[in-house]
Design brief:
single chain; disordered N terminus; alpha+beta; four-stranded antiparallel beta sheet; globular; eight-stranded antiparallel beta sheet; 37% helix
């Protein structure tokens, strides 16, 4: 049964090539010279991570993009099949059958649930997907796909084990200043390295990825490969949990490469920065305004300030700013169907949260940490999260309790004033103003420039007049996937205006530069990780164990997670 399902999956994967413009696979009845794919032969050539390059060359798939596409399609189906085979109960097999069929149908339809519609070609002839969608139990029902003969003999396939270094030399000329002869064909092209990198990443071959990246400066994982590697990581974790096995060390190793790539991708996107002067409370004496500030949030804006960074017990830089990233996260990275519970996640309650959602949340927070280190010139290991959670703001409600409680506004405040260890702050938005909710602007609240023209507030309520008098308000209108990153001092007083309708989801995160005392690690059951296996064990026991625990146990686990964050999210060489 499984093998016949697999043959159907292969047919569906090859149909994906036809529908997405791979010229070697066109099911045309008018091709004068053609041959059929032997599905048994293809199955026998499938190894870990898809068919070999040699076999795909033999089948006529030679273009690097086509090779990567067919491999990704087959690997996707292969992973779903593996999870189906690993199921321990009939109920679990029944649950996994739906996703397996979906993978087959996506391949047959020429789509991918993670990447959207494939890139079509108007000249391609689409193979009918009926057979793949029906999941027949016999091989004879699978559609036969004809292949054009290619007269050019295949070149020797590149191997993952022997990385290729791209030589970047200046163009040479002869004595008459004429261009020199072209570079010989046996010197590898950039596409060869990219193909090797993509293949290794999808196989979770982190060692080869490291070697290729180190040997070829300037090369990095592109966004498609990074997302495919992330899906492979999630599938590997799900398989380990289904088999009740430890997480393999290749999982955190590949996550480290994914985190590196995420920052590289973010640095190519739009960023809006405003540099501001760092401010802190006056250090000399406690004025009347200071006393009022202690007892009245409304007096926060009147607290006497002076230039400088307080940064209690930490190692902040002397630079302060506000940074807006309109596309900090892509839409598919914050999809609540793909990552259920992402909009309500807290590290204290992970028992019923999927591994995909937990790891994706970690990925987003680590992206924030690396962005902050880059923006403020901080050593990455000196920056740790103190708190990060998803928060729900609901129109017509009043917040009760701590920061995670529901409410429809946030009063004017300074993050470093609420917690002395908050040195850098971020908010990632999971909702869009005007679509999911009304009101709810994030507002920076600054002293007004004395030379600015007077404003007329007479039409506003007395409360609003008091709020605006002598102040300059700079609102940001939240959109899904956007983020605001800023220094946490008094230069960045802010508030959230009242939500008048709907629900607003966001992820606040606060980071510290306060060092963790070495004694704290000594008191842990397992201290700092010393091997890749230790790092994988920390990912399992601090995040992915899915075990019931008391509130006290959960608080202890989260405290250890935050202290070990850098060691879990970076390779041993960076510890």
């Amino acid at each position: 049964m499984v093998k016949s399902l697999y043959y159907t999956a292969i047919s569906a994967s090859l149909a994906l090539l036809s529908s997405s413009g791979c010229q070697a696979f066109t099911a045309s009845p008018h091709t004068s010279s053609s041959r059929h794919i032997n599905h048994h032969q293809l199955y026998n050539n499938i190894g870990s991570g898809g068919p070999s390059l040699e076999f795909l060359e033999k089948m006529g798939v030679k273009e690097p993009n086509d090779v990567a596409r067919v491999r990704l399609s087959i690997i996707s189906v292969e992973e779903a099949l593996q999870m189906y085979k690993d199921a321990k109960t009939a109920e679990e097999r029944e649950r996994l059958l739906g996703p397996l069929r979906e993978k087959m149908m996506e391949a047959a339809m020429g789509t991918d649930s993670n990447n959207g519609a494939s890139n079509g070609s108007s000249s391609a002839v689409v193979t009918p997907p009926v057979a793949a969608a029906a999941a027949p139990s016999v091989v004879a029902d699978a559609p036969k796909i004809e292949v054009k003969e290619v007269a050019v003999p295949p070149p020797p396939p590149p191997t993952v084990s022997a990385p290729i270094v791209v030589q970047k030399e200046e163009p040479k000329t002869d004595n008459n200043n004429n261009p020199a002869a072209p570079i010989p064909d046996d010197i590898a092209s950039l596409d060869d390295v990219t193909l090797q990198l993509s293949t290794a990443a999808m196989r979770l071959d982190a060692q080869t990825v490291s070697t290729l990246l180190q040997s070829n400066p300037g090369i990095h994982l592109d966004e498609d490969t990074t997302n495919a590697a992330f899906r492979a990581v999630v599938n590997a974790v799900d398989r380990a949990e289904a088999r009740d096995q430890p997480i393999p060390p290749t999982v955190p190793q590949m996550l480290h490469h994914i985190f590196d790539a995420d920052l590289q991708h973010l640095l190519t996107r739009e960023k809006i920065t405003k540099n501001v002067t760092c401010m802190m409370p006056q250090t000399e004496g406690l004025t009347t305004h200071g006393l009022n500030y202690v007892f009245d949030d409304g007096e926060h804006k009147n607290l006497p300030l002076e230039e400088g960074r307080k940064c209690e017990d930490g190692n902040c830089c002397d630079k302060c700013s506000r940074n807006i990233f309109p596309t900090f996260a892509q839409e598919d990275e914050i999809n609540f169907d793909t990552y259920p519970g992402l909009n309500t996640l807290t590290f204290n309650e992970l028992e019923k949260v999927s591994a995909a959602t937990i790891i994706q949340f970690m990925r987003l927070i680590e992206r924030v940490r690396r962005t902050m280190a880059h923006e403020y010139g901080l050593d990455l290991k000196t920056l740790l999260p103190l708190q990060a959670y998803s928060r729900k703001y609901v129109a017509g409600t009043t917040q009760k309790g701590g920061g995670g409680g529901e409410g429809d506004f946030v009063t004017l405040h300074t993050d470093e004033a609420t917690h002395g260890g908050y040195h850098y702050s971020c908010v990632i938005y999971l909702s869009t103003q005007g679509e999911d909710f009304q009101g709810g602007d994030f507002v920076f609240n600054d002293p007004k420039d004395p030379d600015a023209p007077a404003e007329d507030f007479r039409h506003m309520s007395l409360e609003e007049q008091l709020r605006r008098t002598g102040r300059k308000l700079t609102p940001f209108h939240p959109t899904r996937g956007a983020a605001v990153i800023f220094s946490s001092g008094w230069e960045n007083m802010h508030e959230v205006e009242k939500i008048t309708h709907g629900i607003r989801y966001a992820v606040p995160a606060f980071f510290t530069t306060c060092p963790v005392p070495e004694a704290a690690y000594d008191q842990m059951v397992a201290g700092k990780p010393k091997t890749d296996e230790d790092i994988a064990d920390d990912w399992l026991h601090l995040l992915l164990a899915h075990r019931p625990e008391s509130p006290m146990e959960g608080a202890g686990r989260v405290r250890e997670l935050l202290m070990k964050w850098h060691y879990m999210c970076t390779p041993l060489s960076m510890h």
